[in-house]
Amino acid sequence: MSNHNEIKQSRRGGAGGVALSVLLWTTLVVSGAVNAAGSLAGISYSMRMWAGGLTLLCITLLIVSYVGRRSR
Questions:
Q1: Which long-range contacts (CB under 8 A, 24 or more apart) does 52-56 make?
Q2: Is residue 55 situated within a structural domain?
Q3: How far apart are CA 20 and CA 70, in angstroms?
Q4: Does a structural domain hold residue 34?
Q5: Number of domains in the chain
Q6: Residues 19-67: pLDDT tens digits?
Q7: Transmembrane ranges (predicted)?
């Protein structure tokens, strides 16, 4: 008899997929906050641009991850 939990776990990507999502969401929130509050806090323009780029990268990777999980 097969174990259905193992099949569902392998389709989701396992614990690595969850850890990646948590890391991406955390990075997204932090970089978005730096980008949004940067001018008020006196953070340099180049640092805010890096934070904005990192925010866009996280959004892109979260979308790719979601679409990849959804299509399985």
A1: 54/27, 55/28, 55/31
A2: yes
A3: 16
A4: yes
A5: 1
A6: 999 999 999 999 999 988 998 999 999 999 999 999 999 999 999 999 9
A7: 20-43, 49-68
